[in-house]
Amino acid sequence: MTLLNPSGVIIGRLGGELNTERVERVVAGITPAVVAKKQGKPFTIIKDSAHFRVLARLLPSGAGSAVAALSLEDVERTLGRLQILFLFIGLLVLLLVGVVSRVAIRLSMKPLTAVEGTAEAIANGDLSARLPDAKPNSEVGRLTASLNRMLGRIEESFSLQRRSEEKLRRFVADASHELRTPLTAIRGFAELHRQGAITGEEKTKELVGRIENESKRMSALVEDLLTLARLDQARPIVHEAVDMKKLIDEVAQAVRASNPSANITVILPDDEVFVLGDSLKVHQAILNLAVNAAIHTPAGTPITITLLSGAGQVQVKVSDLGPGLTPEQQTRVFERFYRVDQSRARSGAEGSGLGLSIVQAIMDAHHGSVEIQSELGRGTTFTLVFPVNES
User: Fold this and answer.
1) How far apart are alpha carbons 138 and 157 in whole angstroms?
2) If you placed Cys at 276, which of 131, 200, 350, 391 could pair as Cys (CB 3.0 to 4.6 Å)?
């Protein structure tokens, strides 16, 4: 603390600053008027780029003033160090934030990188590629699940298309082969007649009969092909109430008319039985099974058509006591143009190999099914299952 007279001249000093000249420079000019103006409040003085905090009071009786001056050099030095420290900490925090942000961005972009890889694999033809699973509750997880479901449907669609194309190619090849056989026979018979190899009324009549049989075979084959083609188009079927008891009676009569030696029995329930569907197609499905049984069993072999209803479905069973089928034959009987050993068929009763395929296609169109049970030496049973509430 420094004591000043009314003129601002130092008249005494109590402790504090040892540098007299520095103190004089700080307190010089602090007159009682200046002290009175500050009203006892501390104020700051800048001398030689140094800051001092000053507190002044007037002495009693106008004897001068008492001035206390405190250098802020240490404070400013400490503040400077703190500024440097805070700046360093700020830069370090920014660096850490940058590193963490980069890592976070890379982690968040990882699923998108997986999407890119999967898209590249699919573009190269690998339709089985899928995105790796992510957290199901996250947006990326939900997006991944949706994309995988979409990719699954796309793969399934392409697979169905390939199978359909392969099926069509095989069908066309088989149909061409089957049509070529009767055409070749007809052309051969015509060539024999043209060359004069067939003479006499009896031989000519026999030749004409063979040509007629081959023509009928080809007509039946073409009709079956057209039926399958229409069924393959999956057009909506006609929904009408089909009286199954009446329809089965009609089938039995048709089989007896075309195969007089057929030993066919019909077992029907007392109650009326109806299904919703196309009566003509249902008739054809049952007729194909009955005719198939008549063709591939010895003359007089018992054939039974049984109608059952219950448990939300209608069943039509066509059973025979013929030679039966092997397990391998049972797995293939519904294939198009597949025939069992023709030596087991009656003479002149060779089929087109499409009858059971047509049955299966008709049942698919009615949302039903066809099942087979067979045992060698004990006969075969085909079961048509119609859902009562669908079709």
Assistant:
1) 29
2) 391
Q: Give the three-class secondary structure for 379.
A: strand
Handedness of CA 222, 227, 228, 230 (dihedral sign): positive
Which two tokens mark 110?
């990882």
CATH fit for domain 139-228, picks 3.40.50.150, 3.80.10.10, 1.10.287.130, 3.90.550.10:
1.10.287.130
Strand arrangement, sheet containing 313-320: 263-267, 302-310, 313-320, 379-387, 369-375
Question: What contacts 132, CB < 8 A, 6 or more positions away?
Answer: 111, 114, 144
pTM score above 0.85 = no
- What's the token pair of residue 268? 């029907």
Confidence grade of residue 203 (pLDDT, cut at 50, 70, 90): confident
Count of Cβ atoms closer than 10 Å to residue 235 Cβ: 9
Fold classified for 236-387: Heat Shock Protein 90 (3.30.565)
pLDDT of residue 152 exceeding 90, the answer is no
Structure letter (DSSP) for residue 346: P
Q: What is the pLDDT of residue 89?
A: 94
With 0-12 CB in 10 A as exposed, 13-18 as middle and 19+ as buried, what is 303? buried
* Terminal Cα distance for the chain, rounded: 113
Positive or negative, the Cα torsion across 189, 190, 196, 199? Answer: positive
